[in-house]
Amino acid sequence: MLLEVSHLTVCYDKAMLINDLSMGVDRGELVSLVGPNGAGKSTLLRSITGMVSWEKRIKRRSARGEITIKGEVIFDGERIDQIPAHEIVRKGLVHCPERRRPFREMSVMDNLLAGAYLLKDKRQIEENLNRVYELFPILKARSNQISGTLSGGEQQMLAIGRAIMSIPKLLCIDEPSTGLAPILRSEVFEKIREISELGMTMLLVEQEVSTVFKMASRNYVLSSGKIIAEGHGEELLQNEVIRKTYLGL
User: Which residues fall within 8 angstroms of residue 15, CB to CB, at 6 or more apart?
Assistant: First the structure.
């Protein structure tokens, strides 16, 4: 197992966002995490990748209130829940956040090169850049364009391209279809499928259930901070309670 999350609990003040959650991702898998708004999906990703500071698993204050985080995260055989986010990235666990967030004043190429900042081998960086351009030809065509002027779909492709510039061991993508028109969603999902077929391990958070269930090796359904179901897409869609109550189908 490449990623193992054990008994993770995350609270903001008295609100429990993640409740004693355990899950895992094996090497080479595309695993999806689905569920309604407010289920805790983004909080889970942020906790795994160090974007929510664990502070040695004790309570701390933030602008949003008091945060309490408990549990254990093992990545590639090593415990990572007590190390900072930049060290987690160095170990090969990369987070592609919701709503794209490119460096808007920088060019497309400079954004992509920023994703390779941990690499020292210029030849490797060039190879990775060419690989991204093969996956996303539109980014090559827009390589000198300022990123903030790209369309929403192009910015999402740029965010994914930037994330894979370092060739991560595990790529976590948060809600890639947010704010995109249907035709652009389909294009982005097709690119995610291509990346998965190249052998990259991925954890995908999404609300487009019917699409991701066809793509993913396994799926977790999250509700109120708990995993309430796990399995292949066909299995989960045959469960009437899960379909209507948690997936809105």
Answer: none
Q: Are 217 and 137 in contact (CB under 8 A)?
A: no
What pLDDT shows up at residue 247? Answer: 72
> What CATH number did the domain enclosing 234 receive?
3.40.50.300
Domain range enclosing 73: 3-246
Report which of 205, 123, 192, 143 is spatially closest to residue 164, judged by C-alpha positions.
192
How many of the other CB atoms lie within 10 Å of CB of 125?
18
pTM as predicted: 0.89
Domain count across the chain: 1
115-137 per-position pLDDT tens digit: 999 888 999 999 999 999 999 99
Tokens standing for residue 190:
């097709």
Radius of gyration of the chain, Cα coordinates, nearest whole angstrom: 18
Which two three-digit tokens encode residue 45?
A: 């990703």
